[in-house]
């Protein structure tokens, strides 16, 4: 199955450390979603915004096991329409926190995500948004 990752799980090495063997990684984005980083990261519906990430093909059982771990067990899968850099549009699963669970701040996570997003070549304006969250200025 195709899964869209927007946080530190975009790093294939992190997934492999969790026993997952992803294939076919490619950059993509979701329209009308915004990245928010509280204690943890999530995507929230937000008209006119774009959230970038990586789509990978992953075994359904492996991703369910990944999100059954305590630190990410509150995340809920939802189907999203991903647009790739090549313009292809297709459905994928994306795990998000319910809005009421998105609280606090986590500058360390935001800094790590900034470094990963920069390495992946995401647009500068998106990197700036992540850096603002790292500095505690989400807007």
Summarize the structure.
By secondary structure, the chain is an alpha+beta fold.
List keywords for this structure.
139 residues, globular, Hypothetical upf0131 protein ytfp, single chain, five-stranded antiparallel sheet, alpha+beta, 4 helices, 27% helix
Molecular structure report:
The chain has about 140 residues and is α+β, with helices and mostly antiparallel strands. The chain has one domain (about 1-125): Gamma-glutamyl cyclotransferase-like (Hypothetical upf0131 protein ytfp), CATH 3.10.490.10. It has helices spanning about 10-15, 60-65, 105-120, 125-135; strands spanning about 1-5, 25-35, 40-55, 75-85, 90-95. A five-stranded antiparallel sheet has the order 1-3-2-4-5. Helix 3 packs antiparallel against helix 4.
Write the topology of this structure.
Blueprint: E1 2-5, H1 12-17, E2 23-37, E3 41-57, H2 60-66, E4 76-84, E5 89-96, H3 107-120, H4 124-134
Antiparallel strand pairs: 1-3, 2-3, 2-4, 4-5
End-to-end distance: 34 Å
CATH superfamily: Gamma-glutamyl cyclotransferase-like
Question: Strand share of the residues?
Answer: 35-45%
Percent range of helical residues: 25-40%
Query: What's the β-strand tally?
Result: 5
CATH class annotation: Alpha Beta
Number of domains: 1
> Could you report the average pLDDT, rounded to the nearest whole number?
92
């Amino acid at each position: 199955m195709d899964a869209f990752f927007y946080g530190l799980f975009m790093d294939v090495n992190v997934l492999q450390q969790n026993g997952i063997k992803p294939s076919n990684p490619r950059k993509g984005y979701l329209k009308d979603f915004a990245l928010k980083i509280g204690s943890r990261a999530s995507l929230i519906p937000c008209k006119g915004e774009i959230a970038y990430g990586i789509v990978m093909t992953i075994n359904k059982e492996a991703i369910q096991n990944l999100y059954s771990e305590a630190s990410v067990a509150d995340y809920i899968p939802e189907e999203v329409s991903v647009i790739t850099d090549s313009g292809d549009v297709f459905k994928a699963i994306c795990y998000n926190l319910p809005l009421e669970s998105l609280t606090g701040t986590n500058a360390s996570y935001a800094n790590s995500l900034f470094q990963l997003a920069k390495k992946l070549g995401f647009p500068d304006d998106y990197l700036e948004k992540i850096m603002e969250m790292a500095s505690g200025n989400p807007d």
